[in-house]
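User: Okay, second chain of the day. Same drill as before: sequence in, structure tokens out.
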Amino acid sequence: MGFWKLLAAVAAFFTVMSLSAAVSAVDMDLVYEAGGYSESDIELMEKITDMISSRSTATLDIEKYDLSYSELEDLYGTVVFNHPEFFYVSMVSADLDYKTKDKILAFTPIYTYSAISSNKMKKQIERAADEILSGIDSSMTVPEKVLYIHDAIVSTCDYYEGKASNKGRTVWSTLIEKSSVCVGYSL
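Assistant: Same drill. Structure tokens below.
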């Protein structure tokens, strides 16, 4: 196994092992607690989550949060990297309006796929995931299930070595395009 596949496998293993079951939804309260986020940060991350979930194209006024680019980048990254179902939103860019060079006034997510396309893509992702999960035997222990899922992913997905910053970072790239970077593997 190549270095990148090994690194991705380790990341995926620890991501899955931190969950209470082999396949489980992320408990965002635990993520926020572990990240040491303030109530204000959590409020904004929940607004961003709601925006993306509803595929809103409205501009979100975030002036009251008094955030720098790097602070918003951290909060936005926490949202998109903990929601694999958000494969249809750019993980590396958003539309921003600035108050000053360092403070951001407004935020708008950038959608990489239309609602119609992403709904069709979601069905393909679910079929691919179901195909992998169909090989799990009910007698398997949780570590055996994790190892099975790991093996199924790394045996079919190559490490993305391209230069496009918007490629290889989603569950779509891992399960359908079969080419992904570490975060794509873990999502």
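Helices lie at 3-17, 28-35, 39-53, 69-80, 115-133, 142-154, 171-175, 182-186.

User: Thanks, on to the next one.
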